[in-house]
From TrEMBL:
<protein>
    <submittedName>
        <fullName>Acyloxyacyl hydrolase</fullName>
    </submittedName>
</protein>
<dbReference type="InterPro" id="IPR018550">
    <property type="entry name" value="Lipid-A_deacylase-rel"/>
</dbReference>
<feature type="signal peptide">
    <location>
        <begin position="1"/>
        <end position="22"/>
    </location>
</feature>
<dbReference type="GO" id="GO:0016787">
    <property type="term" value="F:hydrolase activity"/>
</dbReference>
<dbReference type="Pfam" id="PF09411">
    <property type="entry name" value="PagL"/>
</dbReference>
<keyword id="KW-0378">Hydrolase</keyword>
<keyword id="KW-0732">Signal</keyword>
Length: 178
């Protein structure tokens, strides 16, 4: 399933690059946002993610509906009473339909802490510091400058380490566009 989403992601980027021109200055190209995530399934530990996000749309199609952006996040992963920082860089192709934006996300994540609960019965081991993330979101544009939305995110190391537990999260997203 994730390989299929990754293939769609790259096909979507190719379509945008094929029809793109300079960005429209009448539409906000930058955003700063807050994300809060919880796992999509039961885990052996209580897990939450918190991120602050900056995103820049650097290319739009002639119709202004399709776009390609890049973003960065800095945040934390909280596992029971332990925390580790996480940093990510990603590309995000998307489409704007009326008051909604639908986008895909693909990039890399760096975790400062990879093993949680080492001295406990249940351990959460993400395998290593470097992870990949893919996802999709649906964002509602409440005003010209404020959005509220949902984002699904899959984080895993794609079997680059001995452990690959992956983390799928439901995220609430609030953004300010400028």
């Amino acid at each position: 399933m994730y390989r299929f989403i990754t293939l769609l992601y790259f096909l979507f980027i190719s379509a945008i690059l094929h029809t793109a021109n300079a960005t429209d200055t009448s539409m906000p190209n930058n955003s700063i946002g807050l994300l809060y995530g919880e796992p999509t399934s039961n885990q052996n530990k209580t897990i939450y993610t918190y991120d602050i996000e900056y995103q820049n749309v650097f290319m739009r199609s002639d119709s202004k509906r399709f776009f390609l952006g890049a973003g960065a996040t800095i945040g934390q992963i909280s596992v029971d009473n332990e925390r580790g920082e996480r940093f990510s860089l990603y590309l995000t192709p998307g489409i704007k339909v009326g008051s909604f934006t639908f986008a895909l996300i693909g990039g890399g994540v760096y975790l400062t802490k990879t093993v949680f609960g080492e001295n406990e019965l249940h351990t959460k081991d993400y395998g290593g510091h470097f992870q990949f993330k893919i996802g999709a979101n649906a964002i509602f544009h409440a005003t010209k400058h404020w959005t509220l939305g949902y984002q699904f995110e899959h984080m895993s190391n794609w079997n680059n380490y001995s452990h690959n537990p992956a983390l799928n999260t439901h995220n609430i997203v609030v953004q300010y566009l400028f």
